[in-house]
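*** Protein under study ***
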Amino acid sequence: MTIFSTPKSLVGLVGRRQVFTFVVALCLFAPSGGLRAEDPATYTKATLDAWLQRYATAKPDFKPGEVLGAKDLERIRPFVPPGFLDRLNFPELKMPIIAPRAHTPRRDFMACTEKYQSQVKLETDGALANYVCGQPFANGSLDPNDPLSGLKAAWNFEYRWQNYGLFGLTFFSAWDRFGGAHAGRSPMPIEPPPPQWTAGVKYQTRLPSDASHYYRGGGTFERTASSFYQRVYFSHLAQLANQGGVLGTPNAGDFIWKDFTGFYSPFDVRGTVFIVYRYADAHRADDAWAYDPKQRRVRRISAEAKSDSLLGTDTTFDDFYTFSGHQLQWQWKFLGWKDLLCMMDLKEDYPYLYGPDGDVPDDVWSVRRFAVLERIPTDPRYPYSSVLMFWDAENWHPWQSLSFRRDKKLWKILTYVYKWSEDFTDWSEITHGLEASVMMANFVTDLQNRRATLTFGFGSGYPDVSLDHVKKLFDINTLEEIHR
């Protein structure tokens, strides 16, 4: 299915059965003055296909300066996917519209792109060849009719501009059950992680003292957790192009990145750490380890565990950033480009939530262009049948993904919100000069199980790194020394 196409014969393109599904879906999406009453948990991949096909080239009839609300849902519908649009159907909805701004990556990344992009190729197995730094493939080279464009887009996403990688001083997560109210159960204090974990980044901004100020709206909070996260890229670094693009640590060229996720609340998971190594060899499986503070030992994590729930949240390791798996372990389809309403330029330094279940971000919205990708697992045991993703056309940062169960029903909606690095007041010491979209929060809404995981980033950015600290942070042998 290609959202670019305007076929002469719909029957000739997709066949009679698909035409029937398409026509039925169009009827379901016909303007009616409001959303259909059907439970969004019954939506399927065909529902999303029909929405993409119908609104492929839609342009907004609203302008910057307008404030849209629940009465405007039909105007919003072409730019918000089914399932997520249903979450916006409440009387208090306010969507201030701002003009989209340039999100061009920093000059050193753009220089790498200009210098090396023309030499980058795909190997016959899908791995990258002749890649040095910058964006591997030009946007103009991506064509929905080219079966290799999906994989090319996936490599563009992998190597989007992030300086040395995402640093999150405190990621505060709430397990949110639909219905009820979380009054009295809202998270209050925001504590910093153990200083051993954060020693590589210097900061002066103080953490907010009350997280409940940001978690508004309804929903029942069953549990909260605090974690520290850092990803560090070791190779293909545009800012180190004159040094071969590799970090100054031993064997840095053997790795693309390494991830560190450490939990320090609540008490029953305090000190739990996960470390993942992603190798430069596209065919080599990740190495991953978990430190269990109760047993005081490190154990390896199998590849299959990366598709499992992370400590009871609705997130998996493979879901990080909408996709954090191996490109060659998936089938890829580039479906074209689509204008969407998104939150890529928060006005506030911290996100706010509201809505009946407390899972809707409350800030300014803009219309931006996105690449539309579908990934399909090659492993028949994988819990998803496919995932639909929207990645920013200018800097390839993710806005949203929609995952489908094996029965093709819409399962989870993962949404990210961002603030432009140069716009921060708090945390400017770790954001200014990056010229990047800084991930502020992510919200995973599980439609099938009527719950959500709401995660805020306090102290997020892509700062420079200390080489000595990087060596210690990702050294498996020191895990027992750097936990509480």
Observations:
- Confidence is low (pLDDT under 50) at residues 1-36.
- Residues 167-481 form a domain with the outer membrane lipoprotein receptor (LolB), chain A fold (CATH 2.50.20.10).
- The radius of gyration is 22 Å.
- Residues 10-28 form the longest helix (19 residues).
